[in-house]
Amino acid sequence: MSTPTPPPALQPATAAPTAAKAVTPLQWAFRLIRWSTYLAAFITLILVLRKSPPPPVQTNPQAAERAEQKVQEAQQTASTGQPATLKLDETELNSMLAARLAQAMQSQGGIPAMSPSAAPNAATSASPLAAPSGSSDAPSAGDIEQMKSNVKDVKVQMEGDIVKAYVVFDVHGKDMTLELQGHLGASDGFLKFEPVAGQIGSLPIPQSALQSAVQKMMDSPENREKLRLPPDISDLKIVNGELVTTYKDKEN
Questions:
Q1: Distance between CA atoms of 196 and 211, rounded to whole angstroms?
Q2: In this structure, what is the dihedral angle of CA atoms 123, 124, 125, 128, given to the nearest 10 degrees?
Q3: Which among 194, 192, 186 is positioned nearest to 232, based on CA atoms?
Q4: Is the pLDDT confidence value at 217 over 60?
């Protein structure tokens, strides 16, 4: 009698796991670009939301009163047909801006877009209005309108012929800062601002985007009228760290 043949070895219930599919260099590059984009967007958001520190400017009630008195005297002189020049230093200008801003916020709950009814008003409107827009690297025109209507603080520095504006505004309950540097002037009866640098929060705005945005904003019909100077003002500029406003001689 033959010996029974032993059964064959049982096969495993499941096959051995297959080796992990190798990741190609192209897939690694795609993943790197994707996560780099996420990281760049996150860093940009942090920089935009991070408030920059305010500049060290001085204000006091006496300087505000002195500035208002200078404005009235220059306007009265100009109204008689005589040429007049108004000069405000940094402390006088910031003190008057702070006083007018406080009055506007108390009366209306926020400061409206300022019209250049006087030289200091024109300088005030120049800073917020010269904010960048129309670029992916800068706020839109709608954002600028919201900034102007929710301005909480304005500080101005004047160095040589450069004006530096620092603006704090509220966006959906969050304080944000806008800083602009440039040359202030007048052309054909309108306020002129030539930006040289700017940043939102701690994020610098590219020069090309800043210049293009400001030019588009100042050329728009709506903002054009807001930048119209009073008919008795012929020039407005920064000279040796002072705001100098020149009134026209009515005889010329």
A1: 8
A2: 120
A3: 186
A4: yes
